């Protein structure tokens, strides 16, 4: 199974794109690094450019621990809200930050909030290839939210035709529908037994787990809501059951074998 983490700061990447990245991302990611080290797990870290620029030592810590560095855009704005020129600028800046800090080539990309759509596919894939990206992990073949998702796996063929490898997020087929599993808010909300049940028929070598280190942060809502107004709907959607994540994550790391995209598909 592929372990992947999207390294971003909730206050900036979800609440307000114009907000400065806070040092919570350092604490939360360091906590995740410690957990992975305890379980001897190496994964892929999709790092946002704004995080890399502000906290280069965090990027070095991730690389020094043996994890793969990959790109997660610069500002975390939805790609379909950017022009081609804006995306190319963001991509170039974030890739340069990661590669300058680590001294290593970055070959993977994940779009913020899986925000890839057919109408941007030509320039999206072209820009990634021109920056040396080899693979994309931004596709959810399930239409569970209006901001992302595809109804069928034809999108994988269309990406391949444009010269990129593509590794879609894991879904489970239930009653004729694709149900997301092994990641993000789904992992946070589902009881662990349900995650196991949904994952029972997945390929344990190639399935993808993803998370955000901020999902380990059980104090964020209490502390940040004293400074800014967080709408009730957002609070429920973003903070519900965060307290369950670490325990479930530790069980997951014991129950399944994990690797990175690099070590699984592109070993040296």
From TrEMBL:
CDD domains (UniProt xref): CE4_PuuE_HpPgdA_like_2
Gene3D superfamilies per UniProt: Glycoside hydrolase/deacetylase
Domain NodB homology: 11-268
PANTHER family per UniProt: POLYSACCHARIDE DEACETYLASE FAMILY PROTEIN (AFU_ORTHOLOGUE AFUA_6G05030) (PTHR47561)
Entries under InterPro entries matching the protein: DUF3473, Glyco_hydro/deAcase_b/a-brl, NODB_dom, PuuE_HpPgdA-like
A Pfam family the protein falls into: DUF3473
PROSITE patterns in the cross-refs: NODB (PS51677)
Protein's recorded name: Polysaccharide deacetylase family protein
Species the sequence originates in: Candidatus Thiothrix phosphatis
């Amino acid at each position: 199974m592929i372990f992947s983490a999207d390294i971003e700061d909730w206050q900036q990447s979800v609440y307000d794109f114009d907000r400065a990245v806070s040092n919570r991302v350092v604490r939360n990611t360091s906590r995740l690094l410690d957990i992975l080290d305890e379980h001897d797990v190496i994964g892929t870290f999709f790092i946002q450019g704004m995080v890399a620029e502000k906290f280069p030592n965090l990027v070095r810590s991730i690389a020094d621990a043996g994890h793969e560095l990959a790109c997660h855009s610069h500002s975390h704005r939805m790609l379909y809200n950017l022009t081609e020129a804006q995306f190319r600028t963001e991509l170039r800046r974030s890739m340069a930050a990661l590669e300058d800090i680590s001294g290593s080539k970055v070959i993977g990309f994940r779009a913020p909030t899986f925000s890839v759509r057919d109408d941007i596919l030509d320039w999206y894939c072209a820009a990634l290839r021109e920056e040396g990206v080899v693979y994309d992990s931004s596709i959810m073949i399930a239409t569970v939210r209006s901001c992302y998702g595809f109804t069928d796996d034809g999108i994988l063929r269309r990406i391949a035709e444009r010269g990129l490898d593509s590794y879609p997020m894991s879904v489970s087929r239930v009653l004729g529908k694709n149900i997301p599993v092994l990641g993000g808010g789904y992992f946070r909300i589902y009881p662990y037994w349900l995650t196991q049940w949904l994952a029972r028929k997945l390929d344990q070598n190639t399935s993808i787990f993803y998370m955000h280190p901020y999902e380990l942060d059980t104090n964020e809502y209490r502390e940040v809501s004293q400074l800014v107004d967080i709408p009730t709907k957002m609070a429920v959607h973003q903070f519900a059951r965060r307290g369950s994540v670490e325990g479930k994550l530790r069980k997951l790391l014991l129950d399944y074998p994990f690797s990175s995209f690099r070590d699984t598909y592109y070993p040296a």
